[in-house]
Amino acid sequence: MSDPAAPPVRHEADEVLVGFTRALRATGLPVTQDRARTFVEAVALVGLGDQRATYTAGRATLCGSPDDLVRYDQVFTAWFDARDGLPRGRSAPPSVPTLSGLAADEGPGSVGAAEESVHARASAAEVLRHRDVATLSAAEKGRLDAMFATLRPRAPVRRTARHRAWHRGRVDASRTLRASLRRLGEPAAIEWRRRAVRPRRIVLLVDVSGSMNGYADALLRLAHRISQGAGAVETFTVGTRLTHLTRALRNRDVERALVAAGDAVPDWSGGTRLGETLQVFLDRWGRRGMARGAVVVIFSDGWERGDTALLGAQMARLRRVAHHVVWVNPHRGKEGYEPVQQGVLAALPHVDDFVAGHSLATFAEVLEVVARA
User: Fold this and answer.
1) What is the DSSP string of 154-207?
2) Between the N and C ends of the chain, which has fewer C-beta atoms within 10 Å?
């Protein structure tokens, strides 16, 4: 007789696999419904207990080009929770502890137990998204680094003076008249138009002083993610001096980009002179128009060792030229936090959004704030 619990186990396994395809789609991979269905069917054929076969089935059915393979490895590791942190290279598939212990001839009950373990680990990954990055162990930071691939930055947009054809909006009298003339004066369909849009520039100012030491690496990873997927992005670090990191973060490989950034920044874990570095930014780069009409995001806890009056004056200058100013404070979302730092108090009157930035979940919220600016 067949096991009556077998159909629910199969259904539960399918939910985990479909959830994995949705996570891939969230990172930008073109995973269609047909590919997802083929992947589930392929895993059913090769057997859930074969970790290499499951990994290979996903690469064969869900990846459409060589560019998809790196993100596939990252999401596979993050979803199934590889114990050793970052995904391995393409030659060796990531280890999946929850599947490796299954034999090919094990019964439905064993598969169900494995899938319960997969669900538990997926829940642990969700908990990790809300953890403060400064409190994570080295292994947890490695797992979180792989999960940065699930963030999807979007560029804010601005309307231009030009118009574009659209299916609704305002009547485009010129195009409608030309269409009528092509028909020798016979009535033609009404043409419509709307204002065209262009992406706004994003400027990121990342505090790498000593008080931000626990967050600097994660914030630079976030800056790299924004640089790769949100149009025109300029990145600087601030501390005791201003360092331009845009070129270093253009490398698509995040680890190489961070190494280049580390070599370029001379003031890691130093003091905090936000007022002076903002003045240098506005004097040198603001006059060139980099901040004019841009969305400026400042990542800092606001511990200012310099003149807070100077910081307030430079924030006022920045607010006059920027379209939107966002201040991301890693302590903002913590229980009992009050903005009592002198730097924060000087800057807040000139800030449009004051948001938290201490976990992967808050980083996703920051991306939404920037996209809506």
Assistant:
1) ---EEEEEEEEEESSSEE-HHHHHHHHHHTTT---PPPEEEEEEEEPPEEEEEE
2) N
DSSP state of 209: B
DSSP-derived letter for residue 290 is S
Fold of 200-372: Rossmann fold (3.40.50)
**By the 8 A CB rule, do 191 and 178 touch?**
no
pLDDT tier at 108, thresholds 50, 70, 90: very low
Confidence band, pLDDT 50/70/90 cuts, at residue 237: very high
Q: What's the distance, Cα to Cα, between the start and end of the chain in Å?
A: 61
Q: List Cα–Cα distances, 66 to 70, 78, 164, 174, in angstroms.
A: 8, 20, 35, 46
CB 203 within 8 A of CB 291: yes
Q: What does the pLDDT read at residue 369?
A: 92
Of 196, 235, 204, 209, nearest to 370 by C-alpha is 204
Answer yes or no: are the C-beta atoms of 63 and 72 closer than 8 Å. Answer: yes
Indicate whether 26 pLDDT > 70: yes
The token pair at 79 is 């979803």
Task: Encode pLDDT of 349-363 as tens digits.
Answer: 999 999 998 899 999
Distance from C-alpha of 342 to C-alpha of 338, rounded to nearest angstrom? 12
196 vs 200: CA distance, rounded Å: 13
Tokens of 96: 């999946």
Is 154:51 a contact under the CB 8 Å cutoff?
Answer: no
pTM, 2 dp: 0.63
The helix (run of H) or strand (run of E) holding residue 233 is strand 233-238
| Domain residue ranges of the chain, discontinuous segments joined by + | 6-150, 158-198, 200-372
